[in-house]
Every structure is written in structure tokens, then in C-alpha cells.
Amino acid sequence: MECRKHRLLQVWMALAGALALWGTTFPLCANQWLTDYPAAKALARQQNKLVLINFTGSDWCGWCMKLKEEVFDQPEFRAYAAQNLVLLEVDIPKKKSLSEAQLSANRALVGRYNAQGKPTLVVLGPNGDEIGRTGYRPGGPKPLIAALQQMSGKPASAPSGQPHLATAEKTAPTAPAPSGKSLLPWVTGNARASKPAEDDLRLKSISGPPKRRVALINNETLAAGDDVRVVVGNKTVRVHCIEIRDTSVIIRVDSEEQDRELRLSR
Fold first, then answer.
1. pLDDT in tens, 8-58
2. What would the DSSP string read from start to end of 212-230?
3. Distance (Å, rounded) from C-alpha 6 to C-alpha 260?
4. pTM of the model
5. Bridge-based pairing state of the strands 260-263 and 248-253
6. Helix residue spans in 75-197 (DSSP H)
7. Which residues of 172-191 are buried (b: 16+ CB within 10 A; e: fewer)?
8. CA 227, chain centre distance (Å)
9. CA 198, CA 256: separation in Å to the nearest integer?
10. What angle is formed at CA 245 by the lines to CA 174 and CA 139, rounded to 5 degrees?
11. From edge to edge, which strands make up the β-sheet containing 203-207?
12. Distance (Å, rounded) from C-alpha 54 to C-alpha 37?
């Protein structure tokens, strides 16, 4: 009887060890959002993937909720992320409870990456260096996947048996354009059939280092990801800053269906 008990104990111990090893070897399922910054960077380096950091206000930021619903929860993004990304969520909620340690770590990352606006998406290369950032882009997963491919400088990996995502992106209306051309279908000041009332938005300056740029639009300063109300004449419009480039910014105005690019005034 004692020998039988001893053998059963050995079996249980072996099973427990195997389960522990499984958890260590396979720390996350595909598309799971990590909350541990060092672990995400280590996994990206090990798997030669990008880190996509989502700075979000999950329970109060409307644009963050749209980004999750329209992009992150979609099968196309999930398939892309499983092959190419390590996902890291940095949440600053107002109602949802986080541990004090987690909230403190998240706030430190907000400061480190100057990600005051929500949502801000920061992309790190496999070596941990920032290679780009963006924000909410309408149109589902395709525009974000296209931007990530452009930042990485290589085509996406596709799951076996499925069409390569990079091929589909070639015909997407928001796919990256050749160097020197706008990613967007129109630019402020270009002729169009209908001219929105907010056309007197002006980009006055761009300042800061490449990874910490801020733009002055009319009399408001915005970083990538910021969502600000800007005074235009005798009213205000809601402006979401998507990306800040060397001499222009990509924005979305709340009354318009497409992004626009503002260029520095000369």
C-alpha cells in the first residue's frame, strides 16, 4: 500500500512539473495582451517579432474602444498579430481596478514614451528600440497592418494555407504609398469636390526629437495619439492626431470620413 501511494505521489509530482514547464515554455496564447513590459520585450527578442504597445484608457476613452472593436478584435488582425507581434497593453483606467504595482508601472511607461494621448500605439523592433508610432485609424485592421509593415520594413508572415496579408494590402486604399507620396487620398489645400468648413486648420510648427515630436495646430499642441478640441474661427472641432512626420501631420477631424494631412505652412 505504501509503495502504491509513493508511486501515485511521484505521478502527481511529475504531472505538476510538466504543467509548470508548459506555462514557462508557452507563456501566452496567440493574441493575448501582456501587461509586463520586460516580459514582452524579452519574448519579442526571442521570437524576432515587433512589440505593439497599446496605451489605452479601456473604460473611458471612446477612440480606444473603437480601436479594440474595429481592429484588435477582428480575425484579420488576430491572424497578423499571431505571426508578427507581441502585444502589450498599458491601461490607465478610471473605473476598472488595477493593482497599485501595475498602475504605477503603466504610468511610468506613459511618461517614458510620452504617450499622454489615448490611444497611442508605439511599435518596438525585436531589439526593443522604438521604430514608429500611430493611433486610431479608421477602416478596420488593414490600415494598421499596412502601417506596421511599413515600420518593420518587411512583408508580414501569414498563417499556413492563407493568402499572404501583404498581397491583400497592395490594393487597400490606405496601404503605404511610394516614398515621397502621401499615404492619404487628399491633403489640405488640394482641390476637392466638397471642401469641409474646417479647412482653416493650420500646422504651425513641429518640434521635439523624432520619437517625441509634438505639433502646433492653430493654437493647440498635440502629440501622436492626442484627441483635442481646436478652436477654428468662432467654433471648435475635435482633432485626433494620428502621426507626426518631419514636415506634416496626419489627423482625423470628427466631422470628416477620411484622414487628412496638414503640411507646415511656408
1. 666 566 655 554 444 433 444 556 999 999 999 999 999 999 999 999 999
2. G-EEEETTEEEETT-EEEE
3. 71
4. 0.57
5. antiparallel
6. 75-84, 100-112, 141-152, 165-169
7. eebbbeeeeeebbeeebeee
8. 15
9. 9
10. 20
11. 203-207, 214-217, 220-223
12. 11
User: What is the rounded distance in angstroms from the CA atom of residue 96 to the CA atom of residue 263?
Assistant: 39
Helix (H, G, I), strand (E, B) or coil at 123: strand
CA distances from 208 to 140, 199, 222, 223 (A): 31, 26, 12, 10
Place of cell 488640394: 190
Residue position matching grid coordinates 507646415? 264
259/248 Cα distance (integer angstroms): 13
CB 188 within 8 A of CB 261: yes
> Which amino acid appears at position 35 of this protein?
T
State the pLDDT at residue 204. 85
Can you give the pLDDT at residue 78? 96
Sheet holding 50-56, edge to edge: 85-91, 50-56, 120-124, 130-134
From the number of C-beta atoms within 10 Å of its C-beta (0-12, 13-18, 19+), residue 224 rates as buried
Long-range contacts of 26-32 (CB under 8 A, 24+ apart): 30/78, 30/81, 30/82, 31/78, 31/81, 31/82, 31/87, 32/87
Task: Give tens-digit pLDDT for 193-221.
Answer: 334 444 588 898 888 787 778 888 887 88
- Predicted confidence at residue 253, as pLDDT, reads 86
Distance (Å, rounded) from C-alpha 24 to C-alpha 71?
29
